[in-house]
Design a protein that fits this description.
Structural class: alpha+beta
Strand order of the largest sheet: 1-4-5-6-7-8-9-12
Strand content: over 45%
Order of helices and strands: HHEEEEEHEEEEEEE
Largest sheet: 8 strands, antiparallel, barrel
Shape: elongated
Length: 190
Amino acid sequence: MTCSLSCLLRFAPGAAVWILLAALAPAAAAQTLAFAPESRLWIDGTSNKSDWTVEVSTLSGTVEQAEGAVRAARLVVPVADLKSGKVLMDRLMHDTLMAEEHPQIIFALDGANAENGTLTVSGKLTIAGTTNPITFPATVERLDGGRLRFTGETRLAMTDYGMKPPTAMFGALHTGDEVTIRFDAVAAPR
């Protein structure tokens, strides 16, 4: 036996109201978080003279979560804010990253998969105008005030993003192709 809407209203008006409200109600409200000032990102590399690290503390972007899960994320790193504390290194790095033509490094989340206590994050990473898919392990920690803390690291090759590893002093100084990106980013409700 089928029952139309008028049938439901006649025999179970309370149930009909709940069914209509459920059908009309949006899915659980999504919440937007923004990366907080305490967020940090480091890039570690090597050279024939010494290892090096650059840091940026001006990350921006958002994290969208709904029903307790991260649904989308976008992280933006301003290339000009990557600093090593060494003028020559900073100039070489900004030139290699083509900072004037491509002033931002951008990560856009495609998805995350939790398995055996490990979170595997996948997305697209754009550096120096080249976008590649990337997958890496990460952790997410829920903090007070609805904040989320993301930590992790991944390795990549500069040449995979169309960059030539920097050299200086007529080739006497040259860097390795592989770098490690580490992050400790906190996203807080807006």
